[in-house]
Amino acid sequence: MIVLGLIAFAGGPVFAQAAPEPGSNPNLNKTAILQGLDKVTARISTFEAPVGVKVRFGTLEIVVRDCRKRPPEEPPESFVFLEIDEMRRGENSKRLFSGWMFASSPALSALEHPVYDVWAVDCRNSSNSSGDKSR
C-alpha cells in the first residue's frame, strides 16, 4: 500500500510522511545499509544505520525508523523510512527529509541537499562489525 501511495506522487513534490508505528512490522530488519555521496570531495561512503539509532554523515544526522525487504520469492527490493536533519553549529537542527527511500529507485524519493546525497542500498537483520566502508 505504501508503494502505491508514493508512486501517485512520483510526478510532483514528495510531502513529509509520518513514521511507521514501532512494532507494526513483524518482519522489521534491524539495520539499513545506506550510501552517501559528499559532492565536494566526490567520495561515496557505505555505512550501516541501526533502526532507531542516530548516525552522522557530514553535517547530516540520519535516523532509520523502519527497514523492510521483500521476501526472496519476490523481485528484490528494500524500503527504508528515513528522517534526515541537518546539524549546524550554533543553529537548531533542520529537517531535510522524512519518508521512504527505495533501493531500486533512489530518485523516486530523494534527499535534496547541495553537498550530500544519501540513498538506501539494503536492509539486514543484524549489523556487521565491519563499520564504515568508504570507496
Notes on the structure:
- The strands form two sheets. Strands 7-1-2-8 form a four-stranded antiparallel beta sheet, with no helix packed on it. The protein has a four-stranded antiparallel beta sheet with strand order 3-4-5-6, with no helix packed on it.
- It is globular.
- The model is unreliable at 1-14 and 129-135 (pLDDT under 50).
- The chain has 135 residues and is mainly beta.
- Helices cover 4% and strands 44% of the residues.
- The chain has one domain (28-128).
- It is built from one helix and eight strands; from the N terminus they run αββββββββ.
- The chain has one helix spanning 2-7; strands at 31-38, 43-50, 54-57, 60-69, 78-86, 94-102, 116-124, 133-134.
What does the secondary structure layout of this molecule look like, with pairings?
Elements: H1 2-7, E1 31-38, E2 43-50, E3 54-57, E4 60-69, E5 78-86, E6 94-102, E7 116-124, E8 133-134
Antiparallel strand pairs: 1-2, 1-7, 2-8, 3-4, 4-5, 5-6
Number of strands: 8
Strand order, sheet with most strands: 7-1-2-8
How big is the Rg? 15 Å
User: What's the end-to-end separation, in Å?
Assistant: 36 Å
* SSE order, one letter for each helix or strand: HEEEEEEEE
Number of helices: 1
The main pleated sheet reads as: 4 strands, antiparallel
Structural class: mainly beta
* Low-pLDDT segments, ≥5 res: 1-14, 129-135
Helical content class? under 10%
- The shape, in one word, is globular
Q: From the structure provided, what is the oligomeric state, counting identical versus distinct chains?
A: single chain
* Mean pLDDT across all amino acids: 81
What number of domains? 1
Beta fraction = 35-45%
